[in-house]
Amino acid sequence: MSSNPSHTLSFHDLKRHNNDRDCWIAVHSKIYDITNYLDSHPGGSSIILRYAGSDATAAYDEIHAPGIIEEALPPECYRGLLDQAEVVNLPPEQKEDMETIEKTTGQSTSTETYTKPELFKLISTQDFVDVARNTLTPKAWAFYSSAATDLVTHHWNSDVYRRIMLRPRVMRNVAKAETRRSILGCPSSAPFFISPAAMARLAHPDGELALARGCASEGLIQVISNNASYPLASVIQAGCTNQPFFFQLYVNAERAKTTQLLHKARELGVKAIFVTVDAHVPGKREADERIAAENVSSAISGAVASNDRKGGGMGRLMGQYIDKTLSWDDIPWIQQTSRLPVVVKGIQSAADAKRAVEYGVQGIVLSNHGGRSLDTAQPSMLTLLELHRICPEIFHRCEVYVDGGVTRGTDILKALSLGATAVGIGRPFLYSLCYGQEGVEHLSQILKDELETSMRLAGITDVGQAGPGLVNTRDVDYLVPGSEEHDWIRWRPKAKM
């Protein structure tokens, strides 16, 4: 059969290839022979065979982002175009039972009683949270908003910012305020970036593409998630020429796949690799577990959400490919394989910050995974203060970023004052996708405006002027470990004979 891109096939031609030995499907009017792909499909062969010899577009769109099939299949699998006059779209399979969801979550699935406000009426990060709570599907909201067990760390992350006080200087000329900053040598219009967050397409059909376009418009940097809903190439192509992107890496237990991914990231022009090290085992996110998993998969990692006896936690089910043997000795391998600057994301102690620098990384992200991994882990800002107390030289040896709990311009200013090069912001930008690219741009402008206002009122005109003298941390200083003796390994009891 010809694989000429302009070759047109009838629906009758498609129907003849309808079994596990000869399986064709149509997706968005393109026909593919996927016989040899059945056994390697992450979701299993049975789901594909249900659509053998037919148009699988509707079922495909429920799970995958556009472009994944072209990314996954070699060109020789393409057979031609389905005659548009005969296209038959099957109804979506396994539609959610909305009554069950309402009983499980206590949240109505009806949007009739909620009118989404016009974008210009949103003036804070919290406004985006409120819109997302009322417009996302119950499962998407649970996946995005959930955190580990009792949500203690999740709340601490933001609460600690409120306990750090600013010490403004007055009578200064603050007519202008400069927020631009270089992050790993890449220009950014503000000292914050979009943290990697999985499956952005749950919030908007354009998902990570809208994030990329919003960053292009606003001059910001996006860290693309390893579990993004669009292929890496598609996200980068959605941006503008010379737009800097960083890539978050979960090391795959099948190391060859990670090698391929790192090579691809470099070829596509990614500027740095953020190795996530605080979620080799997903935390127990109970709100996410209580609702059955939606049919979604990652375009980059290939991870698929499903359900099992433990529940429907998308974070847990999609993280099963992550290598649990990852150790410090793997950092040189990642550096050599990628030949890109490496940042370790998930540092939660001074001891590990020092270790990261010893391995020659270009940056560290002080992060507890947004409170989604180990509950009652200390908030990231306390780790930042711990570095000042135990190893202040770190700030001269690599760039330091803080992630988790940032919702206000004052939060950004406080982190900068304590030595952070920039902060990462994740959930709020997912929520902003309820308005697509325009939402991303609007939230960016809100945060920039709050930061500029905070800087002027604090008496500084450039983010580089922020320093420890601008903050009062007395209310939390007693919570900061005093020496390296707090390294738990040193206190480990001797094994009994």
TrEMBL record:
Name listed for the protein in its UniProt record: L-lactate dehydrogenase (cytochrome)
Family as reported in the entry's similarity comment: Belongs to the cytochrome b5 family.
This protein's record includes keyword Transcription regulation: no
Top-rank lineage group of the source organism: Eukaryota
Cellular component, GO annotation: mitochondrial intermembrane space
Quaternary structure note: Homotetramer.
Subcellular localization, as worded in the UniProt entry: Mitochondrion intermembrane space
Keywords, alphabetical: Flavoprotein, FMN, Heme, Iron, Metal-binding, Mitochondrion, Oxidoreductase
